[in-house]
Give the backbone structure.
Amino acid sequence: MLSNLIRSPTTVRTLAKPVAITTAKLSTTQLINKSTYRTPNFDDVLKEDRNMDKSRVFSYFMVGSMGLLSSAGAKSTVETFLSSMSASADVLAMAKVEVSLANIPVGKNVVVKWQGKPVFIRHRTAHEIQEANEVDMSSLKDPQTDADRVQNPEWLIMLGICTHLGCVPIGESGDFGGWFCPCHGSHYDISGRIRKGPAPLNLEIPQYEFSEDKVIVG
Amino acid sequence: MSFASIYKVLFKRNSIFVGTVFVGAFLFQTEFDSAITKWYENRNKGKLWKDVKATIGSANNGAEDDDE
């Protein structure tokens, strides 16, 4: 019989005819009347002079508190998203700085901040350029020609950090008419080369490029 | 202030209700922030940098001269 069932499943036909559902729905009152549950009597806990204003104020207060909390949450969520859009520290570390050279008169220093470090820009006079080129290489501690240190001899652009211990040298001072580091007395010439004092190297030259009357450091 | 007058002042006009909620949210945020910070700093007393810095400062008095 089992094999017969398996072999011919078509024999399992719908034997039962659809039976009409005859259970009628009961109305609520009928249900209550039919209910066997006993309803307790709440009369002794219900207050006689129930303050409707109090409960209303309470409800509104709860609604308002909910709104307050959710709006504070929404505000801080939006703030988080907005702050994530602002430049992060690694982007700022790659930042370049653009300086307009038109405003710098001949023979003046300008200090700009680039990646947290001071950058000296000097508009050199013709006399200063000549002076920088006339220096004898053999007298230098860190020999470097002036042409190696500038792209355009009129503009000397270098990092204003003493190569000794990282102070910021003072411009237009020192024995060689350039920069002087007040911390341990290093003298730099008008090309930023170390001439006297404890500093071992010339002032560092950052990467920069000229575009029209601007210089982009970085 | 009876409950009826609270209702009249704060909740009757929806604009005032919503306005109160938003202003309250701003105040709540700063209050909450400072309260949490206070709690956190109290809980981690002695481990924070400002506490540690004081002990380091007293350990080597004036011996730091990193700016040369």
